[in-house]
What does this fold into?
Amino acid sequence: MTVLVLTRPTDATADLVIAELNERSVPVCRLDPRDFPEAMTVAAGIGLHNTLWEGVLRGQHRDVSLGDIRSVYYRRPGTFHLHPDMGEQDAAWALAEAKAGFSGLLYSLPALWVNHPNRNALAAFPPVALAAAARSGLSIPRTLITNDPAEAREFVSALPGQVAAYKALGTAHPGDHGDRPQALWTTQVRPGEIDESVRRTAHQFQEWVDKAYEVRLTAVGPELFAAEIHAGSDASRIDFRADYDSLTYKPCEIPKRIARGVHMLTFTFGLRYAALDFLVNPQGRWYLIDVNPNGQWGFIPDLRAPITRALADLLERAHP
It folds into this structure.
């Protein structure tokens, strides 16, 4: 039985898990969906007395039988790469067919997913994640999502210090001229800085939490791992992703109430893995601000090995 890893050719995070599985002599097949259909083929059939799809994925370097896949580690796969000579309409049709055929075959397998992309997609919507977190008993900052500048100014004016955290609802801006997507860091915003351009799309404004530190909490199945993140620069105090070099980390205990809430939250979404970000104020209250169903975890040195082992355990045992 094989662990299928779906990710790009260069993914240091997936490399850690693959190395651990190799150390355990667990068969692993690493493929990138970006290779389909130009450099990867699939042939699978069902019918008569078969109740499951039977066939083979043939990659550039590895093949795997669909029936041998026990679990799938869905990390950071690329998007399907179509033939460059296809016209716009044909390419749109071919992309839809590739998703229905290639992805549909994999989704039909009785395998454990970490995580299933459909579950990732739902949990990645901040409005859905924040509502589920609140129902799970976790504290969240007061939040407004709007495209009305007057509503935004009124909301921010009512907050302590008249300052809010502005956070993108997605993960990245596509960039100019088709360049590589650009990360959008959290910024502080005040009422006078909110102008009519807010009308052009949805925006998220959150209460600014005066934090003592942040916590990255990683859930792998029933196991929880947490570390304090202490900012060492002005930029990282606003958004720690803006200056990783200034950060220091310290593994920490997880309050029982937080652990219960996180378990309920991951159960709600059917997630076997999630990285959650909390702000902890000087009084010790934890505020959930982000749910990352496919977030990074290798950047915290003391938790890298334990999380690697926990993910390998989950993929190896594979109880869907």
Notes: The mean pLDDT is 92.
